[in-house]
Amino acid sequence: MAKVMVHVMPKAEILDPQGQAIVGALGRLGVTGVSDVRQGKRFELEVDDTVTDEMLAEVAESLLANTVIEDWSVTREES
């Protein structure tokens, strides 16, 4: 068994209104030094040894990320 993390983030050229709202809220809370926030998603999957990296890429591209506006990455932690 392995734990797989799929990280999905807005592409750099895509406006991130949630991230900008967080930057504004940090300023109102008196937190300084934070100039940008990008808000994304993280998925954790428990998979067995039959699940290949190619299968994980297909899952990420077809189900977990909107590839028009989001980038994704997969990391596998062997247990």
Can you walk me through this structure?
Helix content is 30%, strand content 32%. It is built from 2 helices and 3 strands, in the order βαβαβ.
Ordered list of secondary-structure elements with their pairings:
Elements: E1 2-10, H1 17-28, E2 41-47, H2 53-64, E3 70-78
Antiparallel strand pairs: 1-2, 1-3
Summarize model confidence as the mean pLDDT: 96
Helix content: 25-40%
For the report, how would you describe the main beta sheet?
Answer: 3 strands, antiparallel
Instruction: Trace the largest sheet across and list its strands.
Output: 2-1-3
Number of H/I helices: 2
Global geometry: elongated
Give the beta-strand count. Answer: 3
- End-to-end gap: 6 Å
Structural class: alpha+beta
H/E series: EHEHE
Q: Please state roughly what percent of the residues sit in beta strands, choosing from under 5%, 5-15%, 15-25%, 25-35%, 35-45% or over 45%.
A: 25-35%
Instruction: Report Rg.
Output: 16 Å
Unreliable stretches (pLDDT < 50, length at least 5) are: none
Report a brief summary of the structure.
The chain is of the alpha+beta class. It has helices spanning 17-28, 53-64, and strands at 2-10, 41-47, 70-78.
Keyphrases for this structure?
79 residues; alpha+beta; elongated; 2 helices; three-stranded antiparallel beta sheet
